[in-house]
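Working notes for the structural subgroup meeting. M.R. asked for a predicted model of this chain before we commit to crystallization trials. I am recording the input and output together here so anyone reviewing the notebook later can reproduce the run.

Input as submitted:
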Amino acid sequence: MNVLFTLLVALSVLVAGYSGSPAHSGSLTGLEMTVQLDPASAVKVGGAARVEAQGVEYPGTVLEVIAGATPADPPSARLRTFAPNGEVEVRFDAEHRMKLVSDAGLEQAKKAVELAIGLVGAMTLFLGLMKVVEAGGGLDLIARTLRPLLVFLFPDVPAQHPAMGAMVMNLSANMLGLGNAATPFGIKAMQELDTLNREKGTATNAMVLFLALNTSGITILPTGVMAVRAVWGSQNPASILPTTILASAAGMVVAILIGKGLGRIWRGGSSEPCTPEPVAAREFVPLFGFVGAVAALCIWVSLDDRATFFILPGLIAGMLGFGVVRGVKVYETLVEGGREGFDSAKRIIPYVAAILVAVGMFRASGAMDVVVGALAVPAGWVHIPPEVLPLAFLRPLSGSGAFALFSEMTRTFGPDSYLGNLVGTMQGSTETTFYVLAVYFGSVGITRFRHAVPVGVLSDVAGFLASVVAVRWLIGGP
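Returned structure, recorded in token form:
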């Protein structure tokens, strides 16, 4: 992570210094002219401009910024200059890459604090709900249901350890597309796994594999993606369910294989010794029942677009109802468990700030555009359209940025087109890998990530490639 952070910041500064301000071509007649701006341009009225005419640079001043006729149309700027008439090139000081990089770094640092504060409410609620379920013995029931799978994947974690229940809740919430619910459970799981860690500050094999499953696990209900598709007029917002399940399953398989393989050869990260427990055949019955329930939920959602509205309220009501049935003092237990929310959110601020600042600077410098352009040719070899490369590159780095870009692409391409289905599948089947690493490892002070980064990145790549295959196979495409 140290290398990645340093590389992103260094590339941002180098590219920004080399690029300077982008040039806008235009024709000057008289003392005023109008040029088209980039959609996200920072140019404002009164800002300085530099107009190059016949090899000489002249000063200029922005008189007016004109919005496009529609939100999709780029804005324009009207400026005044004393340059000679004719063809000119205009550069605005507000668009200088180095200024944008500086602004982006400060803005993302502020957003890191806002993000942590925003997590306090969700973490307080869901950690409290988890305490209710735990007090009623629910985590033991869930852990027993998935025990055959978890015992195989996490041989160094005792089957009845609290980390098992927290990991199950986190993975279940991610499967249902409930990102806000998954994060508190994931942080709780990481804190419990750290109690087994013999090398504090270093990620164990169990921690790395859990994060790999968290960022690449099967997604059966990408609720946010389906909502955006519905907003932009999709005839069937849930049509990407099978492609999302297939693509995320491919990413999960790759994550498990690479995580297990690298865990054997990467030094460090030892856990407390644990004797693996045998698994009887009858223990698979609850697991099959769980898989059947998941399949039934998928069918319901595919038949009724409004079914996704019931998932989160149903989860909350179900967890509280379970506590009541099991005789738990629901209110007192909810408050007691929720007290951990603020402390956990406060602890992650420095880690989230570091990765958000690096990513924000990298985007603002234009370095991301350079990398995407360089990848366009090899991407064509595996039938990845160059139009979706910005999303593929941004998705592991910035959740909010990727979601905004996915929404814009869906509107531009059309939700039911090949590209619309592809970006929906890519968005739904992958995760913000570096954000998850920063938040979860930051919650327990892990600074030595070991093989977590290559496992996460390679599983993302597998998910993107599988998205192309799944959409072309199940929906159709060029």
